[in-house]
């Protein structure tokens, strides 16, 4: 297990969400209770501008969830502070987590990962390998 000591918090919030600071405060408190230290927070707002209202529920980027500018800010802060992980308030797909980790060069966690931690904020050192289902029939295509 790898212990996470320093983190950056990130959240994408719709303009309809008025309590986004409270959500970040709650996540900050959970990380702190597990022995982590929050060094920075980044908020990406969606739908604040007139053009963004129709897209409130969708991510800004399919790959990175947040916009390019915010992505660069978080990456620069991660490098500057040399944090162990970036923690998102939002749920992330496996695809997003992989791309964000590659871009930041750090672990990327979510609120759910923090909630699963018990006495310290930890993650497995090696990802679990999926074992193939040996009972599945081979995929045969007709020509």
Automatic annotation (TrEMBL):
Location of the region described as Disordered in the Swiss-Prot/TrEMBL record: 120-143
Which InterPro entries does this chain map to?
GTPase_HflX_N
Q: Which domain of life is it from?
A: Bacteria
* All copies of domain GTPase HflX N-terminal, residue ranges: 60-108
Q: What is this protein called?
A: 50S ribosomal subunit-associated GTPase HflX
Give the originating organism: Micromonospora polyrhachis
């Amino acid at each position: 297990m790898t212990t996470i000591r320093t983190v950056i918090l990130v959240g994408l919030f719709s303009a309809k969400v008025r309590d986004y600071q409270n959500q970040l405060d709650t996540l900050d408190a959970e990380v702190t209770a597990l022995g982590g230290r929050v060094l920075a927070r980044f908020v990406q707002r969606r739908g604040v501008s007139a053009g963004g209202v129709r897209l409130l529920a969708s991510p800004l980027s399919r790959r990175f969830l947040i916009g390019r500018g915010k992505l660069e800010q978080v990456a620069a802060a991660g490098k500057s502070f040399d944090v162990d992980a970036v923690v998102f308030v939002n749920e992330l797909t496996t695809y997003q987590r992989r791309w964000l980790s590659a871009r930041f060069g750090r672990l990327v966690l979510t609120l759910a990962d923090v909630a699963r931690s018990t006495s310290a904020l930890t993650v497995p050192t090696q990802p679990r390998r999926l074992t193939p289902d040996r009972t599945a029939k081979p995929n045969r295509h007709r020509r």
